Amino acid sequence: MIRTSMFSKSSQQLLRSVFQKSKIKPNVQNWIGFHQSRALSGIGDRESMEFDVLIVGGGVAGLSASIRLKQMCEQNEKDINICIVEKGSEIGAHILSGNVFDPRAMNELFPEMDWKEELKSVQDSIATPVTNDQFLILSEDKSYEIPNFLLPKQLHNEGNYVISLGQVCRWLGTVAEEMGVEIYPGFAADEVLYDDSDSVIGIATKDVGIGKVRSIIVSISLNKNSSF
What span, in angstroms and rounded, lies between the C-alpha atoms of 177 and 189? Predict the structure, then answer.
């Protein structure tokens, strides 16, 4: 069971600033639940662990969210406990995609790091630059190429990279752990828990225990080509 400690005022202000600066509002439409319960109740005698923030999902979105929170902690000389639960047996186990990766968010997350070299060094995985785009319409016996200048902007891949998303996740996992994020693979979130006022207080993990939290980030990558 994963339990969170009570937020200090400084931790509350820090977390609010994350959403304000990123222009993300804490609602379901943005796939992020950000809730602070007034009381923790109804969890019985089950064993628990305490964290300030629980991130459900160890994909690119969840790992980068944990890293960004830790970066903001360092910038504000504060600290919060962050935990990631991942249903896969290890980080990257359920990320099977090879994809065309837009590096903009990665460059913003690591402005002073050559993440491509780090990925190669840690995971022996190469980010290959896209050199050419071809968009073909296939028939039974022919193909018809659409000129690139007729394609919408989101189908142009100049500056993007062909990568293994699973390897990227494994590398982000090592970065997050080095920054103090606790990652628990093999823990599937089974249901969301609420208190008497219908505020979210945590998650129940499948067949393992209960996670009680003060904040929950349900992470889903939404951008094109499975990048974040």
Answer: 20
